[in-house]
Amino acid sequence: MSTDPSSSNVSVRQQELVHQIVENVRSKMVVNTVPLEWTLIDLTWTLIGDDGDLEIGVETADGPFPGWLDQRIGFPPELIQLRDLTHAHEEGTWFTLHLTIPSEGEVTTHFGYVRPQEDSDVEPAALSRNRQPEPSEADHRSAVAKYQQERIQRIADAVVYVLDANRERLDWTQIELTWTVQDGRALEVEIGITTTDGPFLSWLDLAVGVPHALRDLWHDASVSDRGAWSTLRLVIQAGGEVTTHFGYEPVESSRYLYTAADPKPHTYPRETRTKRIQDLLPENAERYRPLDWGPFASGWSSAAEDFTPDEPGMRYFKVTNPGAAGDEGYEIFSEVDDEGFECRKVQKFRDGRTECVGGFVQTDRTWLDDDLVDLATLSANPNVSAAQITASQFQREWLAGGG
């Protein structure tokens, strides 16, 4: 059935609701904040009561899109309104809605009026409400386990897709990831990649980020009798095997908080960092890393102990961003060791308010998905100035900020 207004068997209200659903779907075609260049979207919703299932396929110029959108399409309210228009069509209430949305051209719509069978793809809970008694405890646990496993597999598929999409081919044998989550918000994702040539020590073209399935898994506290978890660790083998471990200890801070005692998937020696932060300051602008590279950065840790301001080899810098319209600007006072590692920092807003004071982990690792920005990346901004300061100037800011 076409959504063409001239179609006599489609009410005007029905056309409006289908149009709103289509626009909702189009608006969700975004991946990592970048609009997806799609050519065709094929969707089928199956509804039983207020429950149901959604199947979606997205085609691009390069073939089927196997990744995950930034936002879930789910069940828009217009879909339920459309279903509730029981007299909008002479055949009565429909159970499936199938939309085919081309990037250019006419959207086609098809309603299905045959009630889904029990062995269909609709979730068991949806059918039980209408046709079966309440499931047993064993059935419930089985359904929860199935749901959990499906989400974990989707997370693993999303990670593998990022690696396979890398311009530099990675003959990887194992991927280890740890996501840290607090209040449903992912604070950090750490990743270690083992290849046939050893640990992968460069940057990926795409960020692994936080797949939607991971958010689903966290928000559904029923996946475990212990409630919501704080960390999820996945180990993905090249052969497809995935092992999972949940950590239930609460995150201590809304900032990245790691110590040398924290178990991490991979620990790389400091000498693997071949570029020093001081070599990337403005006086060496021609050596800036490409803008599409992610920075190496270590996670937040507790303040450094037994600090001596004139410790040999330490250098101190002040990085200033004067700000612009809609941007407060900032000042960063940074302590950098003789190898170019940022050890401590004080970050302040331009009005003098302190944003953060902290030290950095010294058992440095490769971080491929960290949105902390290091000194070199900040200094590469033409609106940012960086100048060397004395140890006493740094110490004054450190103590004033509560370090």
From TrEMBL:
<dbReference type="InterPro" id="IPR049248">
    <property type="entry name" value="DUF6881"/>
</dbReference>
<feature type="domain" description="DUF6881">
    <location>
        <begin position="316"/>
        <end position="398"/>
    </location>
</feature>
<dbReference type="InterPro" id="IPR036170">
    <property type="entry name" value="YezG-like_sf"/>
</dbReference>
<dbReference type="Pfam" id="PF21812">
    <property type="entry name" value="DUF6881"/>
</dbReference>
<protein>
    <recommendedName>
        <fullName>DUF6881 domain-containing protein</fullName>
    </recommendedName>
</protein>
<feature type="compositionally biased region" description="Basic and acidic residues">
    <location>
        <begin position="131"/>
        <end position="142"/>
    </location>
</feature>
<feature type="region of interest" description="Disordered">
    <location>
        <begin position="119"/>
        <end position="142"/>
    </location>
</feature>
